[in-house]
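so im writing up the methods section and need the Lipoate-protein ligase B record in one place, dumping it here so i stop losing it
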Amino acid sequence: MSRATTLHGFALNCDCDLAAFTAIVPCGISDAAVTSLSAELGRTVTVDEVRATVAAAVCAALDGVLPVGDRVPSHAVPSPL
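--- predicted struct ---
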């Protein structure tokens, strides 16, 4: 995080083809792999099925505030390397 802004975002894989992720070492954890809710639960889990639950959990984790808008604060825009 930088100035309270995540640098890489948040992803929740529900029911996607994971083949493209086989070369990724998530968070540098060499004995872990990218997975999905469907793979972990052994059934199809759709985005629509989890959207409200995930939004509520994220909002609760952020003390009840989930700022959403079409403006990005200038401090949140990454600077070029």
